[in-house]
Write a structure and sequence with these properties.
Oligomer: single chain
CATH topology: Rossmann fold
Structural class: alpha/beta
Order of helices and strands: EHEHHHEHEHHEHH
Helix content: 40-55%
CATH superfamily: P-loop containing nucleotide triphosphate hydrolases
CATH class: Alpha Beta
Strand content: 15-25%
Strand order of the largest sheet: 2-3-1-4-5
Largest sheet: 5 strands, parallel
Length: 179
């Protein structure tokens, strides 16, 4: 059965590192699909325009459904900083088996990671910090400040293997009246 592991967390939380480890350790061949990759398809000046970024994100969500319907297992690297993005993703993936995973990290560690990486806009994680996990329910959660990407990936894969029917996505669909 096609499996979608949807990682939601702020910039610099460690989602990509976890996704690579899921690919490495998972028994299924997971495609790692990143929101950032889709946003980078457009010129930077256009991404900063809300209407353009919303169209790109909507296309991203529809492509996720297409990849999954075609039979691909996915590990998705996402940042639900906008409610509109979250609702659109719920709609696009409503009929699919989605394990919704919260990727957490304390704010001070996120700030330090942004500085250390050098490829992030300073302040992005802080801006996203309260927004990304607001009013949501997860099937499983990890904290990358206290565990390595490898440990987090193994815990997620164990949860997915032992849980045949994830419930968070269905609960969120019902709470948001999406049928």
């Amino acid at each position: 059965m096609v499996t979608i592991i949807l990682l939601n967390g702020t910039s610099s939380a460690g989602k990509s590192s976890i996704a690579y480890k899921i690919q490495e350790f998972g028994e299924l061949p997971y495609l790692h699909v990143k929101m950032d990759t889709f946003l980078r398809m457009a010129p930077y000046d256009h991404i900063r325009r809300r209407e353009t970024s919303n169209l790109i994100i909507k296309g991203f969500h529809n492509s996720l459904a297409g990849l999954s319907i075609a039979g691909n297992c996915l590990v998705i690297d996402h940042v639900f900083q906008e409610q509109e993005w979250f609702l659109n993703c719920l709609k696009a993936l409503k009929d699919l088996r989605v394990y919704f995973i919260g990727v957490h990290c304390d704010l001070e560690t996120l700030k330090q990671r942004e500085i250390n990486r050098g490829d992030r806009s300073i302040g992005t994680a802080e801006y996203q910090y309260e927004r990304v996990h607001a009013k949501t329910t997860y099937d499983f959660e990890v904290d990358t400040a206290n565990a390595t990407a490898e440990t987090c990936a193994q815990a997620i894969l164990k949860y997915v293997t032992e849980t045949a029917h994830p419930l968070a996505w269905e609960k969120l669909l019902a709470e948001n009246n999406i049928e």
